[in-house]
Design a protein that fits this description.
Heterooligomer composed of large and small subunits. By secondary structure, the protein is an alpha/beta fold. Helix content is 47%, strand content 19%.
Length: 457
């Protein structure tokens, strides 16, 4: 035992290994696919670079992380420049990154997108059946030791303690996960025919890297979800994680807790709503009672005893009877007055009386006519004589009777000047009695002769 060399401490071994790596390998470029990208509040970035055969942990400290332009998402293919080292407290072999460059889409992400496009074209993502709310018997497919089932049960207990839940334990990571979940889905759908109360399935797990969640991107699992007779809700990973199971299921929740919140109502909200409805119902009942009470009081006030009603109706009938008698008496008296008036008018219009009055008017008119005729004839004779005297006074014939004559030419026009005649012209002289045919021999002046009394001379 005394010849045993001194043993090194664990920290010393890790320190020597770190120095050997840093001095022996130095700085290098490594290309691979990003996985498990973590961004703690310190500002450092921790991730894993991998290919189809191996993986390498990496750390990118805050002073360098701010200069990285690449988005640093799981599945991206990048090239990282750095130096190999060991994190002594845990003995973790890692690459201390200095720079990161994008190198294209990762193989896993490319395979995911290709499979997603093919399944979408086949209609595998067309499920949209509504899930019962709340389900009578919820079947949960998940790991019995994971955080997902604890979160789901905690939310269900807080929101809806009446929920009936059955855990179907299945692996949720690794190669056995997808076949186990497919087998469980088939068994649950066959048992649903025997137990109709089983009416919803929740398939869930907590967060993880793209590789950890890859079982939920299995093509056969997506088809099993599509063909499930029971409606399925998928809640895989965190809010940023999306798997093919989410697309194939009837509904998706971002986290297991959110899935439980969507599946069942909140008993506190229901209790509050029930209390509100109870208050509204009580107020409505009280208001209805008050209205009906007022209506009853009004009807009671309107209600009368039959004897009182009959007495009032008898009084009304007597009043109407008296009004009828008065109306009949007034009507009869009016008719009698009208009859007497018509009789008086009829006697005044009797034919014998009218004939006597007409004969008397005719006699008076005849007497006035006989008396007026002589007077009218005498007056007309006097007026005619006066008009004859006036006519005789202005008549041209009276002038001709005093020796004057009127000369007319062949056309019957009166000749007024000697210049209007010509020698040899025949004229007619109209005398007071008769006519003379004259011939013009010679024209001469006659201005010194006296003018006749009549314009026709």
């Amino acid at each position: 035992m005394d010849d045993t060399p001194d043993a090194l401490s664990v920290s010393e071994v890790n320190r020597r290994a770190r120095r050997t790596l840093e001095q022996g390998v130095g700085e290098l470029w490594v290309e691979g696919e990003l996985s498990g990208v973590s961004r703690p509040t310190s500002g450092h970035l921790y991730f894993t670079l991998k290919d189809d055969q191996a993986q390498l942990r990496c750390a990118l400290f805050r002073t360098r992380a701010r200069f990285v332009a690449a988005p640093m998402r799981d599945g991206d293919r990048v090239r990282v420049r750095g130096r190999l080292s060991i994190f002594e407290p845990r003995g973790d072999y890692q690459l201390i990154a200095e720079a990161v460059q994008a190198a294209g889409v990762g193989d896993l992400l490319a395979a995911f997108e290709a499979l997603k496009a093919r399944l979408a074209a086949e209609g595998v993502f067309a499920n949209a059946r509504p899930l019962p709310h709340p389900p009578r018997h919820l079947l949960v497919l998940t790991s019995p030791t994971g955080a997902a089932i604890r979160d789901v049960l905690a939310v269900l207990a807080a929101r809806w303690p009446l929920a009936r839940v059955t855990l179907i334990p299945v692996p949720v990571q690794g190669r056995e996960a997808a076949p186990a979940m497919i087998s469980a889905l088939g068994l649950l759908n066959r048992q649903a025919a025997l137990d109709p109360a089983r009416d919803a399935i929740l398939i869930t797990r907590g967060g993880g890297s793209l590789e950890d969640l890859w079982a939920f991107n299995d093509e056969h699992l997506a088809r099993a979800l599509f063909h499930s007779r029971l409606p399925v809700m998928s809640a895989v990973g965190h809010e940023v994680d999306v798997t093919l199971a989410d697309f194939a299921a009837d509904a998706r929740a971002p986290t297991p807790s959110a899935a439980a919140e969507q599946l069942v109502p909140d008993q506190r909200a229901l209790a509050q709503r029930l209390a509100t409805l109870e208050t509204r119902l009580a107020n409505a009942v009280r208001s209805r009672q008050e209205r009906e009470g007022q209506r009853l009081d009004h009807l009671q006030a309107r209600l009368r005893h039959p004897g009182e009603v009959l007495a009032r109706r008898r009084d009304t009938l007597a009043l109407l009877q008296a009004r009828l008698h008065r109306a009949l008496a007034a009507c009869l008296e009016g008719e009698r007055r009208r009859q007497r008036h018509l009789a008086t008018r009829l006697s005044a219009q009797a034919p014998a009386r009218r004939l006597a009055e007409s004969r008397e008017r005719l006699s008076r008119s005849a007497a006035r006519l006989h008396a007026a005729m002589p007077r009218s004839l005498a007056a007309q004779r006097q007026r005619l004589a006066a008009l004859a005297r006036e006519l005789q006074a202005v008549s041209p014939l009276a002038v001709l009777g005093r020796g004057y004559a009127i000369l007319e030419d062949e056309r019957g026009q009166v000749v007024r000047r000697a210049g209007d005649t010509a020698p040899g012209q025949t004229l007619t002289a109209r005398l007071g009695e008769g006519r003379l045919e004259l011939e013009v021999r010679k024209q001469g002046a006659c201005d010194n002769l006296p003018r006749p009394e009549s314009p026709s001379a």
